[in-house]
Amino acid sequence: MRIFLGLGIMGMVFVGGCATGLHGHSGNPSVNTSAPAAASSFTTTDRAWIEINTAMDEQLVPMLDLVDSHTGTAAVRDLGKKADASAKSELLDLRRLHDQAGLPAENPHKGMEMPGMVSSNQIAHAGALREADFDNYFKKCLRDHLDQKERLALGEKSAGKESQTVSLASRVLQEQNQLSALVE
Fold it and tell me: What percentage of residues in the chain have a pLDDT greater than 70?
């Protein structure tokens, strides 16, 4: 089952990358046509990994913003702060790589429904919860997010070619492992 899930994720990365590649051929004005020649070092896998991870982190941030006002425990508050710092640091690197890769301004993966991608419905549901109920739901959502980020990072490490994205995927794996250890 895990092998099939991994293959499905890599398929999403490749399909997402191929769809991203099509933007440049359709005359989409949002494509950065003045991107440096270095953009050619980013493969479709690298580009899709950047876009998917950017969307995942951007959609996690509103959930993380709820932690302080909804949890009743210091441990969950600490977990939220660590996850927030990790996501925001990663977003800085992902956005830099996004620009270097010459990707379009509009992320085709934003709002996509996939495992680990926090949805607006999940954020609304979490916003209605308090203390133990919030903590349990938040940890479930974060665990799903971390599991998916791990699968995607492993895929990038094995199939990615751009050294910066592969390096970031390695860092993501380390940070996800540290955060996963804190999620009970």
Answer: 79
Neighbours of 127 (CB within 10 A): 15
Q: CA-CA distance, 66 to 71, in Å (whole number)?
A: 8
Res. 153: pLDDT tops 70: yes
* Token pair 């990663």 in the structure block, residue: 90
* pTM (predicted TM-score): 0.80
Rounded Cα–Cα distance for residues 15 and 21 (Å): 10
pLDDT in tens, 65-101: 999 999 999 999 999 999 999 999 999 999 999 999 9
Average pLDDT, the chain: 84
Three-state SS for the chain is: CHHHHHHHHHHHHHHHHHHHHHHCCCCCCCCCCCCCHHHHHCCHHHHHHHHHHHHHHHHHHHHHHHHHHHCCCHHHHHHHHHHHHHHHHHHHHHHHHHHHCCCCCCCCCCCCCCCCCCCHHHHHHHHCCCHHHHHHHHHHHHHHHHHHHHHHHHHHHHHCCCHHHHHHHHHHHHHHHHHHHHCC
Number of Cβ atoms within 10 Å of the Cβ of 42 = 26
With a CB cutoff of 8 Å and minimum separation 6, the contacts of 144 are: 115, 116
Contact assessment for residue 176 and residue 146, using Cβ atoms and an 8 Å cutoff: yes
